[in-house]
Design a protein that fits this description.
The chain is α+β, with helices and mostly antiparallel strands. The protein has a single domain, classed as Alpha-Beta Plaits (2-Layer Sandwich).
């Protein structure tokens, strides 16, 4: 039976890619830097109209939130997966596929959905027990979104920041509370 067609309409998506079980999608920080560089090159090569809103690389998987203004999501993700797999295999002396299955894509339809997806992506290392705060995880766009570091222009989190207000300083403070406070503290 053929797989269903991927949603290729323009829009905002939460993307996930997973390693073949059991296994790593990234062995170290160098792999993560290669993946981000491959992502940036992919956007150029496909001539895609993408805005990377957020990213987070874990050991076994990666998350992206991407706004796609054209129908290039599948072509771009196919190219990204193939090029990264070749680089990973060459670097680590292995052969064969790296991804468990094709990428996952969930369409984001509201500003609240975007804010929650952003929080999910950048809190992923905290929830996995890899660090205490999303600020501590070096392999995500969270610090760049807050203006605490430069990611070379890879990401643009303005859509998320604007959800929390038009005064940038106040919006960033609200975003930090929304992301950094555990769910129980937010509910209290």
């Amino acid at each position: 039976m053929a797989r269903p067609l991927r949603d290729s309409d323009p829009g905002l998506f939460h993307i996930t890619v997973n390693a073949i079980e059991p296994g790593a999608y990234f062995f170290d920080g160098v792999d993560k830097m290669i993946w981000r560089a491959t992502l940036a090159r992919t956007i150029v090569r496909v001539r895609a109209e993408w805005t990377i809103v957020a990213h987070c690389e874990m050991t076994t998987h990666a998350h992206l939130i991407v706004a796609v203004a054209d129908g290039s999501l599948s072509a771009g993700m196919h190219l990204l997966g193939g090029e990264y797999t070749r680089a990973f295999n060459h670097r680590h002396g292995r052969k064969g596929p790296l991804q468990q299955r094709r990428f996952g894509a969930v369409r984001i339809v509201t500003a609240a959905h975007l804010a929650n997806a952003f929080r999910y992506v950048v809190r992923n290392p905290v929830e996995a027990g890899a660090c205490r705060s999303p600020l501590d995880w070096p392999d995500s766009s969270y610090r760049a979104a807050l203006g605490l570091e430069d990611d070379g222009g890879l990401t643009d989190a303005s859509a998320v920041i604007h959800h929390f207000g038009h005064n940038r300083a106040r919006a960033l403070a609200e975003l930090r509370l929304f992301v950094e406070l555990p769910a129980a503290a937010r509910a209290a």
